Amino acid sequence: MRDKLSNMIAIEDLTFSYPGKKPVINGLNLHVDGGAIYGFIGANGAGKSTTIRNMLGLLEPRQGKVYIMGKEISTAKLEIMQKTGHLIDAPAFYGHLTCLENLQLLHCYYKFDRSRVEAVLKMTGLWEQRRLLFSKCSTGMKQRLSIARSIIHQPKLLILDEPLNGLDPEWVVAIRNLLKEINQQGTTIFFSSHLLSEMEKLATHVGILKDGHLTLELPMQTLLAQHQQLQVTIFLDRTEQLHTLFNNGHIQVKQTFNDNSATFRLDNKTQLHLLLQTLITNNYRILDLNTDQPGLEEIFLHYNS
């Protein structure tokens, strides 16, 4: 077992169930190194939000322990929360207060420099709307205000459940870049997201949750390097007999389509050359060709199947 004191987050043998239900989390072990951006993924209902609620001390596990910054959340919650920013569920603020006023209220708890209110509103593109009542804000603005709240006290750790929800494409990119910048300044980030293409661009580490426990926990680059197969789609004048031609050897036909195209998964470019040579030798006419390598989305589907 890894040393819990050396991790920013350490979850050990965590099991949690709602009353009268089977366990949502079942013997979960998870570790986040300081300085990491840890992407947490799983299918709907896999237990991501429940795990995050256990991390923040909002739920009490049936067994197991959660350590944040080397301290157990159940006994040091107030101290830990002073150094942690979080975003869970739908944005919750006072509807009759403005964006500015909602953030100013946080000074009573976090004791940050008052200039931080203006700074985080500008970081999240809300300075011009600072006088707008929260109840009048759009979904995307409410989400950005939640992000502003989570970083206002310059936390050592950010725990974010679906931080990109409700954002338009421009702000998805902007918040991704903001989180990278915050991480470079020393903040560890743990986040869940269903936008796997964005997670691939942002996360340094990834954990895949299935049936209440991790099926995988690796640095992102290690995971991608382990799945460097080429996926090749070739458009042909016909697709008859392709399965007979290839599936007896090292090259396998993954799928054929009605538009006379076929997709192959290859281990290397040598196999691609062999594939093309075989097609030409057997009088197939190649009309077009596309190559791609599996990203996090394809890898997740593989591990979650």
UniProtKB/TrEMBL annotation:
Provide the ABC transporter domain boundaries.
9-236
Record-level Gene Ontology MF annotations:
ATP binding; ATP hydrolysis activity
Listed InterPro entries = AAA+_ATPase, ABC_transporter-like_ATP-bd, DrrA1/2-like_C, P-loop_NTPase
What organism is listed for this UniProt entry? Chitinophaga agrisoli
> Record keywords: Nucleotide-binding included?
yes
Source superkingdom: Bacteria
Which keywords annotate this record?
ATP-binding, Nucleotide-binding, Transport
Q: Which Pfam families match?
A: ABC_tran, DrrA1-3_C
* Membership in a protein family: Belongs to the ABC transporter superfamily.
The record's PROSITE patterns line, in alphabetical order, gives: ABC_TRANSPORTER_2
Name of the protein described by the UniProt record: ABC transporter ATP-binding protein
Q: Does the keyword ATP-binding apply?
A: yes
